[in-house]
Design brief:
The protein has 14 helices and 23 strands. It is an alpha/beta fold. The protein folds into three domains: 176 residues, FAD/NAD(P)-binding domain, CATH 3.50.50.60; 113 residues, FAD/NAD(P)-binding domain (3-Layer(bba) Sandwich), CATH 3.50.50; 103 residues, FAD/NAD-linked reductase, C-terminal dimerisation domain (Enolase-like, domain 1, 2-Layer Sandwich), CATH 3.30.390. The strands form six sheets. Strands 3-2-1-7-18 form a five-stranded parallel sheet, with helices on one face. A hairpin with a 2-residue loop joins strand 4 and strand 5. Helix 1 packs parallel to helix 8. The longest helix has 25 residues. Keywords: FAD, Flavoprotein.
Length: 472
């Protein structure tokens, strides 16, 4: 394509705005159509807000650890100096302010490189035309390349309708005026587990309804076991093998909402003050005109794409949660960048999920990269597995860390690092050397021979790799 190719991007989340930056750098004329605000759900209602909330909960957990570290929070008479509590309106205001600040930063960056942003709803007329409706105004944008990055929204059920006050989705929780007395979290996947622990850390009583044998059913089983143990040790009630049938608001005789009742499929009823629904998400692809244009979708509504983000229609690409590939902001951004590089004739490598690093922001965090033990077992691969408890690390002892581990999966014989798991505070930062090892096919000896600071948590990464050194 020529240097002034017209690119129209529907959706301003990570997949959309990262794609726009690449397209602008490659000389294209770029327009983003965004309905809700730049940054999308990742910045405005999901990743940035939830991790900000979690950071506050982590801070409060640190205060609780003070006596173990020798810090006395009582005066000479033995009375508590202060009782740490979460002022939820202030916490939520900070959460929303940071989300808006990040959205504004994205807007400034896009403006710097000449990307035009149009507020409104988009609809495909054909593979070269996007119709934009904003209020009563309507206009058509000609396009040489179209990228669909419309994201996903919380899944709701007919028997559990969110009202934004007592029954909430993860996009609605930042409007709470006070800390829930008893929060019932339905769903023990990543979102449910993260927010359940966040509210537990903020001081709420929390019950987690999990339909599986273990929380975080899609994750490494050793890691999930650690997190569930931490949950219960800190006072959370975990209802395993329990599935929600319905959730309804409980009202007094005057009709005033006083709480919620979650009915399980086995007939049990769990009562609390609020319910948070974390039962998955659905792609925001309805109303885009996909079928009329010929863009193929799955039965779930997700847009079908190949490894360079192409849809079934030439010139139309898709990225992010609307594709159902992997619901991570980093993957959405990579899909968007790959799409633009491919469409505009730049060098490109197809998306590889084998080297994606991901993190669950519980406390401790779970960071993973590469092959999982579950997949290795399913494929019958010949691997060596090494696991090292973090409690043996000297820096962990100094910091009062008792839960967590480092785990490696290496190819038997060559010692090539195929995957890794880090369960630790700030595991999202610690996993990077493991990601490098997986991405560049380093072996355990190469990873183990690199210097680490003593004492440091990264020392456990080198030690775990060292334990997989082949001796025959």
């Amino acid at each position: 394509m020529n240097a002034r190719s017209r690119v129209v991007i529907v959706g301003g989340g990570p997949g959309g705005y990262e794609a726009a930056l690449v397209a602008a750098h490659l000389g294209a004329e770029v327009t983003i159509v965004e309905r809700d605000g730049l940054g999308g759900a990742a910045v405005l209602t999901d990743c940035v807000p939830s991790k900000t909330l979690i950071a506050t909960a982590d801070y409060m957990s640190g205060i609780a650890l003070a006596p173990e570290l020798g810090v006395d929070l009582r005066d000479e008479e033995g009375d508590a100096i202060a009782h740490a509590r979460a002022d939820l309106p202030r916490v939520n205001q900070r959460v929303l302010d940071l989300a808006l600040a990040q959205s504004s930063d994205i807007a400034r960056r896009l403006d710097e490189v000449g990307v035009r942003v149009l507020p409104g709803e988009a609809h495909l007329i054909d593979a070269q035309t996007v119709r934009v409706r904003s209020g009563d105004d309507e206009s058509d944008l000609p396009a040489d390349v179209i990228l669909l990055a419309t994201g996903a929204s919380p899944r709701v059920m007919p028997t559990a309708q969110p009202d934004g006050e007592r029954i909430l989705t993860w996009q609605q929780i930042y409007g709470l005026a006070e800390l829930p007395e008893h929060l019932i979290v339905v769903g023990s996947g990543v979102t449910g587990a993260e927010l359940a622990q966040a509210y537990l850390g903020l001081g709420a009583r929390v019950t987690l309804v999990s339909s599986r044998d273990q929380v975080l059913p899609g994750e490494d089983t050793d890691a999930a076991a650690v997190i569930e143990d931490v949950f219960t040790k800190r006072g959370m009630t975990v209802l395993s093998r329990s599935r929600m049938e319905a959730t309804e608001v409980v009202r007094d005789t005057a009709g005033v909402a006083t709480g919620v009742a979650v009915t399980l499929t086995d007939g049990r009823v769990v009562e609390g003050s609020h319910a948070l629904l974390a039962v998955g998400s659905v792609p925001q692809t309805a109303g885009l005109g996909l079928a009329e244009v010929g863009v193929q979708t799955a039965e779930s509504g997700h847009i079908l794409i190949d490894r360079v983000s192409r849809t079934s229609v030439r010139g139309v690409y898709a990225a992010g949660d609307c594709t159902g590939v992997l619901p991570l902001a980093s993957v959405a951004a990579m899909q968007g960048r790959i799409a633009m590089a491919h469409a505009l004739g730049d060098a490109v490598s197809p998306l590889s999920l084998d080297v994606v690093s991901a993190n669950i922001f519980t406390d401790p965090e779970i960071a993973t990269v590469g092959l999982s033990q579950k997949d290795a077992d399913a494929k019958g691969l010949s691997i060596d597995v090494g696991i090292l408890p973090l409690s043996r690390n000297p820096r962990a002892k100094m910091l009062g860390i008792t839960d967590g581990f480092v785990k490696f999966l290496a190819e038997k014989g060559s010692g090539t690092v195929l995957g890794g798991v880090v369960v630790a505070p700030r595991a999202s930062e610690l996993v990077f050397p493991v990601t490098l090892a997986v991405a560049h096919r380093l072996n355990v000896d190469q990873l183990a021979s690199a210097f680490t600071v003593y004492p440091s948590l990264t020392g456990s990464i080198a030690e775990a790799a060292r334990r997989l050194h082949a001796t025959d």
